[in-house]
Amino acid sequence: MASIRVENIEKTFGKFKALNGVSLEVRDQEFVVLLGPSGCGKTTLLRIIAGLEQAEKGRVWIGDRDVTELPPRARKIAMVFQNYAVFPHLTVFENIAFGLRMQKATPEKLRANVERAATLMHIENLLERYPAQLSGGQRQRVAVARALAVEPEVLLMDEPLSNLDALLRLEMRAELKRLLAESRTTTLYVTHDQVEAMSLADRIAVMNTGYVVQYDEPMKVYQEPANTFVGGFIGSPPMNFLKVRVEGQQAQLQSLSLKIPTPAPGPEVLLGVRPEDLEAYLEPQPQSFTAEVLVVEPLGPHLLLTLRFGQQLLKATVPPDFRVRAGQTLWFKPQPDRLRWLDPGSGQALAAR
Amino acid sequence: MRSERYIPYVLILPSVLFLLFLFAWPLLEALLLSVRGSGGQWTLENFQRMAADLYFKDALKYTLLLTVVIVPLQVVMALGMAMLLGGISRGRDLFLYVWTIPLGISDLAAGIVWLAIFTERGYLNSFLQGIGVIQQPQLWLSYETPTMIFVAVVAAEVWRATAIVFVILVAGLQLIPKEYSEAAEVFGATPWQRFWKVTLPLLMPSLQVALILRTILALEVFAVVVALGGRNLPVLAGEAYYWYNAYQNPGVAAAYSVIILGISVVATMLYLRLMRSKREGAA
Amino acid sequence: MNLRVLYMLLAGVLVVWVLLPIFLIATLAFSDRSSVFAWPKGLLPQQFSLETIAFFFGVEGVWKAIRNSLTVAAMTLVFSVLLGAPAGYALARYRFAGADAYRLLILMTRAFPLAILAIPLAVQFIQLGIYDTAFGVALVHTALALPFAVLVTSSLFLGIPKELEEAAWTLGCDRIQAFLRVVLPLALPGLAATAIFAFVISWNEVFAATLLTLRERTLPAFLLTSLNDSPLPFRFAGGFFLIVPALIFIFIIRRYLFTLWGIANR
User: Fold this and answer.
1) A54 contacts in chain B (CB < 8 Å)
2) Which residues of A, range 31-60, sit inside 8 Å of B by Cβ?
3) Strand A268-273 and strand A340-342: pairing?
4) Which CATH code fits B43-282?
């Protein structure tokens, strides 16, 4: 087990700047998820830590070793690839044993480690098979077992669940969580799926355009996005951002006036509010604002409303038994302790509460 | 930083050096050889001797004529075979294998095979006798019947080398997504229209490769002709061979090879230009 | 329904067109001398005889020519794979300045009638002392087969996911170990097909082989130079013998034929 530390990593592909001086630290035994849209640099960062790509600038530490100059084989890492990269010409046993054979492990240790890893992943009865005889989910298990068998200091995973179908993904997600909680291996995990990130991570590093924009615990990232990008990327439907007029220390939305905790940067401010934090009423309410219902989408656990508030669109969720039709006007009150204030110019949050 | 930039260069270096030594250099050497006299002076003597030679005109004529007859025949036939293969469901693999067998057969062997058919007591004459057309064996491959030698060479070459065009075209067809043709069908195109308006234009790159390759090989036609007609049907590559081997004159032989190279380059350029303008016209 | 029958009929005619001449030459090769000269000939062999074949192998120089052909083809096979596979690997795995120029060089070799280059080479080979050797002929044959080897192996390596190699690196392999343990076993059938293809190219080549040898003839060169003064049975048996290995090789590599050409197209 070891920590991971990267400092000021820069990487360009031709003219495209993939990473703009990224620094990040993963504590020993921590599970960190790199989350971001495609092209944000998350996989590149992971591959640089693995030694599969070379950064132009910056350094990588694993534990207290500077591994920047080391080839992948000397970094004491293991990696799980998006397409599993299970060797098709080797049996499951030989796949899992591959790393151990390279380490010249004793036959006893080899057998013990392979069996332990296989049992952990519930594939102990598949050891003699070839990958072509396995399902996608089983190959996935082999890939993880192969990585665990070498007892790496650091486990790197590149979108390991994205090639599985939805149901299997859900199942594997829970299993991975159990497994890594048990093995306590330091893990860096790349995904573009925010639900996956929320469910697995001790901490999430949200990346965009080659920067880490927020690095915090999942619920913090969800409730207190550092900027409009994070609020919009995490959560489905995304956070609403309403442009609101500022009068003194107060933000004014019709009859609703809200106190802004920090001085506003100008005459307007962005109010970030999650759809589930807007409470809807059929009758007029004090301290509320009105919006017209454009679309009603019944989603099962709740109804998703698309609303028009002045010139702006916003989303809200209401209980499934809420009697509402398109064209109606509703009154809304946001939950006052769940609000987020942002600068409309830069999109950055005004200040931490 | 660990540098890995040099790795690909190390990997291609041996083949680059090899091709420089066995492709670029002899190419240059052929040019030099053809314009130098025995004393090393610059001269057009080799080309003059070549042009003045009795066989030269016929060799040039027959080489070009063979190319012009054989290549289109092969392309049309291969195209037909490729389309035919698309219409066959059962035994497709067997047809594929049998039709590509000639790929592995050399020009010399093909010449000998067709010699067995066209020779005096060969299968052609036996067949003609069998259906009562002739009574006595007919001599087809003598210096008096260059047309028949020509026909025999065409038959042998079409038999042997249509397979390569066929394989290139089938490989090209596999790269064309079915959806195009299906879309055209939905919009009411007949099979004939689909072939002309969709398949053929999309197949252009493969056709181009096949045409260039086949034309170049047709221009160096040699062993088939020697096997079937000796020097009774002179061709350029054959003359190069005779001048080098029988007359011990590398200069004139090189002049012949330069002529073949020249025609090949012109033909390649022509294909590239003609077929590109066609594609742009279609777009 | 009728169309289907017509298709099968046409396909059948094409099968006969390809196979009949091979059948005829085989018939002649396995007949006795008198039936080779018989007139008129029946389609079916009169009687099976090894006389013609035995006569062919009895001619002085034939065995030597066969041995030379095998030597040259084996050398060509080895050279083509050793020179071509690394380049194919480089094209498949690395993006590097000059990759396009290199591809162009490879494609250009196919726009020239390479065998013709045997003429200037013969002059040089005499000076280098490799004229009339199997090695010299193999060099020219390698030049013929190398472009194929490069393009085919490059498509072969492209078909093996890079992640497999990367996984091997992360599991403790250096580059060479990863290649030997992961890439090579997966590429082996395709490499074998490439090698066989190179072998066939060499086995069949006659122009350069004839120009570059005098005593150390390959089989095609030997046959060609003795065409004029050899009897028909000898030629037929020789022609048949030339075809046989090619038939077997094409059968072995038939699965790869289209991958070979599909990629070589681009």
Assistant:
1) 1-2, 4
2) 54
3) antiparallel
4) 1.10.3720.10
